[in-house]
Amino acid sequence: MDRFELAWAAGFFDGEGWANAARRADRRTVQPQARVNQADPNGIPEVLLRFQRALGGLGRIGGPFVKDGRKDLYRWEVSSRGDVEVLHHLLLPCLGQVKLDEFANALGRSAARSRNPDSDPEWVAWAAGLFDGEGWASMWTHRSHEGYLSAEVGVGQSSGDGRPEVLARFASVVEVDHTYGPYEQEGATMPVYKLKASAQRDIEAVSSKILAWLSPAKRSDLELVIEILRSQPALPRGNPAWGNRKTHCIRGHEYATARIRPYKSRGVGVQRRDSKQCLVCVREQARARREKKKRSTADDDRRSLSDVRTRYLLK
Questions:
Q1: pLDDT in tens, 153-177
Q2: Domains of the chain (ranges plus CATH)?
Q3: DSSP conformation letters of the chain
């Protein structure tokens, strides 16, 4: 078996799978089982077939399970202790703590501890598996620039105990970390957290890491988003209606005659940037502060010593 495909399968199971122990009426003992559900209106989803291949053919795929108003549902599953033991063993190296705890409960044993991602390429395959299970790439009309499209790439996961471990792992692998939440989401039993990338540089950073390991459907979505973003002209910063590219400050001073004060970094190696700070306003504000300070000093000189002492004690 290919260890990278197993890492991908662990990521996919972290996103879409579950394990538990079911009690049936015709058995005296509980029965361990594990399952991955996936919907597809066009037949058995490719990701379920890939998952099964990665496990050496383990398990069976059933479906479609039809329900009005929903896509046809398919599921990969194992329902014997031996098969669940094998599944646990194969996915163990990369599996997240939530799923490891589920396997421990299903098999009646202590849970193994999850690993943190390192530089091994198998973690990239794991991140691609998680994205195949819980990720999305979408576009919509830009809210202020006609003719432009905005994009978002993200991964979601629910958790009742703060930020999900798998999102922190994913962020570590792709080196993009913008996690939001918790959100209340219809149909979710726990609060939902989402890691999102919306800037083009962040979307391309995520893509450069995981694209090669994605399954065809998610790879196609991500490639289309990047193609459209790259085809758009450079987006002008800000909205002219909201003051972008203005020529005068809010008090009416013209920037061109007031001179524009450049930004001077206080840190080492921080790139300078343009700043539309009006020097006329800056000078007037500094002059007002100096005059206020002079008046305060003059008032102190005119007070008697006893008055100053009394005011101090009353503070």
A1: 999 999 988 899 999 999 999 999 9
A2: 3-115 (3.10.28.10), 126-231 (3.10.28.10), 255-314 (no CATH)
A3: --HHHHHHHHHHHHHHEEEEEE--TT-SS-EEEEEEEEE-TTSS-HHHHHHHHHTTT-SEEEEEE--TTS--EEEEEE-SHHHHHHHHHHHTTT--HHHHHHHHHHHTSPPPPPPPP-S-THHHHHHHHHHHHHEEEEEEE-SSSTT-EEEEEEEEEE-SSSS-HHHHHHHHHHT---EEEEE--TT-SS-EEEEEE-SHHHHHHHHHHHGGGS-HHHHHHHHHHHHHHHHSPPPPSS-GGGTTT-SB-TTS-BHHHH-BPPP--SSTTPPP-----BHHHHHHHHHHHHHHHHHHHHHHHHS-HHHHHHHHHH-
